[in-house]
């Protein structure tokens, strides 16, 4: 995977050229920054963090010379690379052919802001922070359980304030020794649970959500109990209330799970209220 700054031209609405571009060179200047290759050690770490499985679909945004796409295909995935620079697309197709994975890969010259990647199981990218922030709403609205992994930059902050709260990674790994670019961040797209839910016993669960972090209160037996340690991992919701640990699988407007305290475990179910 590469840091393909040329994708920034998408912001100005420039069209994709069909002319044969020159052969890319590591370190060449792009519109805002040079093309920089991601070390293979970090590529492998990113795929490990995503816990990729054979036959899943990985889409790499800003795929550069195709090394993430090729590495994913070598692990048995179907892999698509989206890249704006025609020279890099041509280079990545040659590299896929040489690696023997051309049939498992697609290297497409396209604008990442116009391409539909909603069917991906795994998304990888190495983009400018402002592009990452621009993509953040799209990422958050992907299918719950979709895994996302980035090279270096995370999804905190805003374009105006990079230090502002945002979508914290579920996991960050920093390689030591550093091969050039050292860190990778991973997220799992959470289900959407904000709102009022009613349990089958008549209790109410009011949930507030900031990406994968969940807060709120459980209203039961005349008590209002503040939730603690609320978190979503894909479709799995976990929280603690009055010493009881709750977990549930969220399926659209219903959630079903178990409430555990000491050696006792009870099943519970809740339905989203309009």
Structural account:
The chain is elongated. The longest helix is centred in the middle third of the chain and has 14 residues, at 86-99. It has helices spanning 40-49, 67-74, 86-99, 129-140, and strands at 2-3, 36-37, 57-61, 78-83, 105-109, 122-125, 147-151, 171-174, 183-188, 195-199, 204-210, 213-220, 223-226, 228-233, 236-241, 244-251, 254-261, 264-272. Mean pLDDT is 88; it is low at 1-19 and 28-33. It is of the alpha+beta class and 274 residues long. The chain has two domains: 2-188, Rossmann fold; 195-272, Lipocalin, CATH 2.40.128.30. It has an eight-stranded antiparallel β-barrel with strand order 10-11-12-14-15-16-17-18. The protein has a seven-stranded mixed β-sheet with strand order 5-4-3-6-7-9-8, with helices on one face.
Main structural class = alpha+beta
Strand residue percentage: 35-45%
Strand order of the largest sheet: 10-11-12-14-15-16-17-18
**CATH level-1 class of the largest domain:** Alpha Beta
Number of domains: 2
- Unreliable spans are 1-19, 28-33
Break the fold down into its secondary structure elements and pairings:
Elements lengths: L1 E2 L32 E2 L2 H10 L7 E5 L5 H8 L3 E6 L2 H14 L5 E5 L12 E4 L3 H12 L6 E5 L19 E4 L8 E6 L6 E5 L4 E7 L2 E8 L2 E4 L1 E6 L2 E6 L2 E8 L2 E8 L2 E9 L2
Helix pairs in contact: 1-2, 2-3
